[in-house]
Amino acid sequence: MKIEGSVAFVTGANRGLGAEYVRQLQARGASKIYAAARNPESVKTEGVVPIALDVTNADQIAKAIAECGDVNLLINNAGVVIGSGIMKENSLENAKAEFETNVWGPFNLSKGFAPALAANGGGVIVNVLSAVSWMTMKEVATYAMSKSAAWSMTNSLRLELARQGTLVVAVHPAFIDTDMAAGVDMPKTSPQQVVERTLDGVEAGIPEVLADDTAAFVKNSLPKHIETFYPRVSAPRP
Ligand SMILES: NC(=O)c1ccc[n+]([C@@H]2O[C@H](COP(=O)([O-])OP(=O)(O)OC[C@H]3O[C@@H](n4cnc5c(N)ncnc54)[C@H](OP(=O)(O)O)[C@@H]3O)[C@@H](O)[C@H]2O)c1
Fold first, then answer.
1. CA–CA distances in Å: residue 32 to residues 5, 68, 123, 189, 205
2. Whether the Cβ atoms of residue 124 and residue 1 lie closer than 8 Å to each other
3. Which end of the chain, N or C, is surrounded by fewer C-beta atoms within 10 Å?
4. What is the rounded CA–CA span in Å between residue 191 and residue 17?
5. Ligand 1, residues at Cβ distance < 6 Å
6. What is the mean pLDDT of the chain?
7. pTM of this prediction?
8. Ligand 1 mean position to 173 CA, how many Å?
């Protein structure tokens, strides 16, 4: 699908990766961009249509779907990390909150927008996932669970929406240089690169975007993921 002339709907469009999606969609000539944010006044980009949308709010989702029937490119970008190990206090509450935004948000938006995408020629759904869809770390266990679930959901959407001609694109970045990873002292990928690779993938009709070398390494390590990512627990016990 060409970005030029497309009608895009971006969640979490006010900052971070979402704001970069908006910028590059504009640069590639999208004809209309619905910039969805919990606080639409925080969308500072000129020339877009701000939409009030908390992706955990069913009424706001229904309103957005009713008002934006011309969409042919849905970008499920909004996400949250609370950062909790499973054995930590409040981990269930944290996991549920992360699933509300990272799984049920894109689930409801994809399901709700699917008829409009079909009516508009099939279109594209982009789900912003993570390298931690394929591995985990103690500090972000519940977030990684949500991104693994969202990966499975993305694969299912791909199967179910193939007949209506909708391309479903999974985007897997490692750390990105945004507020979300501000406290992380590790190499980070620029939002520009993640978005450029995503939009190149959309235009080329590619279903999976490895946004950086780390994500590619994680994916390629899956056949040996126990030895690679969990070496201390991989040795046989006497
Ligand atoms: N940064 C990373 O290292 C990294 C790595 C891999 C994947 N990702 C994924 O990339 C995507 C974008 O994250 P980012 O790096 O841009 O993070 P960010 O800078 O923290 O921005 C998160 C965005 O999501 C929005 N958001 C959070 N909860 C929401 C909700 N319930 N409803 C609507 N919007 C909500 C935020 O809106 P408010 O301004 O209202 O809070 C903000 O616009 C996320 O899906 C994230 O999981 C990030």
1. 8, 10, 14, 27, 21
2. yes
3. C
4. 5
5. 11-12, 14-18, 37-39, 53-56, 77-80, 101, 128, 130, 173, 175-176, 178-181
6. 97
7. 0.98
8. 13
